[in-house]
Amino acid sequence: MKTIISNESESIEQLLTHVVVTYLAQLYCICVVWNTLDVSEIVSINLNWNHADDDYPQMMWLKYEAFSENQTNIDDLVRMGIDNDCQAFITTPNTAIDFINSFENVRFTAKNRYHLMHVVALPTTIDKTRGYIDRILNHPTVQDIPNILIISPSTRESINQNQLNINGELFELITSQFVGRYNNTDPRFLDTFDTTTGHFSENAYLFPEKFPNLQGRQIRIALFNYNPYAFWEEVPPGEGNANAIDADEDKTLLIDGTETLMAITFCELYNCTLAVSLDEDGEWGNIWDNMTGDGVLGAVVEQRADIGFSALYSWLHEFQFLDFSAAMTRSGITCICPKPRLLSGWLLPWEPFTATMWTAELISFVGIFVAMVLIRIAMKSAKSIREDDIVSTCLQIWATFLLQPTKYSTRHLPEMIIGTLALLTSLLVANAYGGGLSSIMTVPRFEAPIDTPHQLAERNLEWGATHDAWIFSILDATQPDLKKLVSKFQAIPFEALAARRTTRDFCYSVERLPYGHYAAGEYINEEALNYLQLMYNDLYFEYCVSMFYKTWPMKSVYDLLVLHVAESGIQKYWELQSVANHANSKIQLGISVSRHREKTGLISLSLDHVSGAFFLWSVGLFAATIIFILEFIYHRKKSTIVHVVPYDSPESF
Q: How many domains in the chain?
């Protein structure tokens, strides 16, 4: 780093040029914010590096009308600068506070989001310096701008001459303290620059790294109890590892969980203090268009917390208002649904064949019957075919399919061929049917399970949890099955969910974690697992992230920690530890083995196994009785009809 500036100019532009060339040259664009009160001063600053090399940043000059101290139109200009990739802003004494106010207004709605924005505030007059510095550093937004540099006239003695800085030849370079739990808005002196000699007194780095030791700076996190991602409980003062926000006593909360451990590790590495924002009723929460919300999301978007945890996904709607960390882990969203029940015995006669097979069998029967009728019509005249012949043919084909003896004509070769083919077909089909029937009568048969999103949508079952965050990721899905699932999702209270454990008409959403465990609501208890079974496939999967409010300055170091943790594999241990410490092991085991059934082996036949046959026999007996009665009535009426012959003449006898 150069420590001596050219003596060709004795103005502030020497120092400003050095700052830009040495510290900001790697940026894409720099914006200079000024207003109509700065016309005479800003014109005199010649940034001669501007077009000296194509590698230098682009310059953008943002000028606005200063109607009064509290009325500016700077918001649109600052937003334009950010959206045009300005990563550094140079402000004049007349625009510094206006810029910071505007940055607070637009940083949450701008298209681009920069977490390490550089701000350089040009000096004011000596008599206003103290108030100028205090107004900048005490502004709440400056807490999110660690790379701020204030150039201030100095009253110290010259470096090489024993005289006061009467002519404004000395400039102090000041930044914010930033670190520390208290007094982190105090000014931090960096160096002094003498414009007459071009020397720095300390040769200090003007944008020092402030993250390696945050000296107890408070990091606010938002979470709710959702094992194994996040867990908290109150403990006696001093026995915890986090503070409640605005609490009078230290270390009154014990926090744990696969995601919360990331924040704990972050503070162990960077020496910060955790403060927790809790909203158990709001759970994940919602964000509304006016930048307010509830739950974890609301705490972050309203800046009541810096980081949000508890299984937050990469949701599109929330990305418009918040920033996401690097992906921490994969989560598969699935359901536990009613277990398949044993099929009823009266359905057994239909079970050996599928619906397709039964359809093929029916088509074969109709085809052979039609062929046989056409052959018999061809062998005889159509007038000689009686109704009884057609019925007799149908019964003959039916008897053949049931492997019952029947009589075909041996005088006509076509009829013999059709009869032989019908017999062979029925022999093969009947044996296949008999084998299938014998197997299902001795091995229990169950309903088809719900294992895929398509099956869940096809069953038309409702599914849900206590919050609609479970469907945030698929709200805009275009697949028919997912659209059906979104319409069937129910976000209902805990008590209503608990009441439907055994009703067999509801599925519960759960998360499948990457190392063999599950995240499930407490409404799923041991009793419920007697009636529920885990789906084989996921409905969809997502990547869990932490969420920050836009421009949170420590995002880059937090993301670096996430990547280091992911490559280390320690998350497997974290998951196992969190589940062992805070989850119900019986529930975890119950979900894991819910798909397994006890092997019953071969069983003795009972009345239930033949109830289907008795049902068919009863239907046939009833139908035969009805038909017999109808035929009896029909023939009785037919036999009582008297034929009257008209009398014409004696010769007619």
A: 2
